[in-house]
Amino acid sequence: MSDAAEIIETVKGQGDVYLPKTIQRNERLARGLVPKLMRVAGRLPFADDLAAAYYAARDPRTPMKAKAILFGAAAYFVLPVDLVPDVVVGLGFTDDATVLATALSVVGMHVKESHRSLARKLLSLPEPVRDAP
């Protein structure tokens, strides 16, 4: 089956929502995100953005096109085959950061504060201090 035919063909996902097969495949890959993220979080300045993007992609209120882009970015982070291998010191995660930054520039408006809060909780990061009015 061609890639175009695979994208068009749909399968039923969680909550009886029809998801393109590519999104379903990326969602399966992205499930490996949390273990890998926890292993390397200390070396990633963008770890909270990546986790927030993952939570946004899993949110049923996030539009399908945004889910596809966010799951694609998370799946790229998890995939062992990379443009720049993650083990290269100093450069290993630059391609992952670029993919995530591009994804967030396109669909970042769908990453809500609730997703960012979940990401901070996962990574044991403090909540930001809010100025009192």
Automatic annotation (TrEMBL):
Membrane topology value: Multi-pass membrane protein
Protein name according to UniProt: DUF1232 domain-containing protein
Compartments where found? Endomembrane system
Q: Taxonomy-wise, where does this protein's organism fall, top ranks first?
A: Bacteria, Pseudomonadati, Pseudomonadota, Alphaproteobacteria, Hyphomonadales
What is a single cellular component term in the Gene Ontology annotation? endomembrane system
Q: Keywords for this entry?
A: Membrane, Transmembrane, Transmembrane helix
InterPro entries in the record = DUF1232
Q: What are the residue boundaries of the DUF1232 domain, all occurrences included? A: 66-101
One Pfam family assigned to this protein is DUF1232
